[in-house]
Description:
Number of strands: 4
CATH class: Mainly Alpha
Radius of gyration: 18 Å
CATH superfamily: Jann2411-like domain
Helix content: 40-55%
CATH topology: Jann2411-like fold
Strand content: 5-15%
Largest sheet: 2 strands, antiparallel
Number of helices: 6
Distance between the termini: 54 Å
Amino acid sequence: MDFSHYSDEPVQMAVALINSIDVVTGDDKLQTPEDVGTFIDAWGSDWFDGDRRLSDSDLHEVRALRSRLREVFTATNEREAAASLNAVLQDVSATPRVSVHGKRPPHLHFEPEGGSPARWLGAVGAMGLTTALIEGGFERFGRCASTTCDDVFVDTSRNHSRLHCSDSCTTRESVAAYRRRQRAL
């Protein structure tokens, strides 16, 4: 029985938020407050109950949060990852509360009601990553092994063997390795 609804979509949302900036090229998908709103609508349209009138301050806070969540993936051990997550959870006032909404049975939420976008994203994202750390272990947190990418991922493969953030990076690296072998012949 899964007692946490923070084990799937919130993890994917946190990874998508972190990867919304390409740290190799600097290409940022969060250029305006409206981009933050679009991101929230894509991930929390039924869940986010905060103010949807976003400002430049909200954009700045979400970008700062994104950097702080990336620290979980750049940590060298689970103690550092846990410390990063605990700091975010404390800063966003992630306090458990029982929520009853929609057709779902009662469940826990940790984000503040009516909070800012950054606080909501911080609570949901950090709780998702916390659940992944507790249930899967630190070795599940990865950064893409591609030479042209530094996106992050949570490895859900059965044998903990994932090396790349996406099938595109896996394919690109395989093709590059094949071409290097062909040139060496």
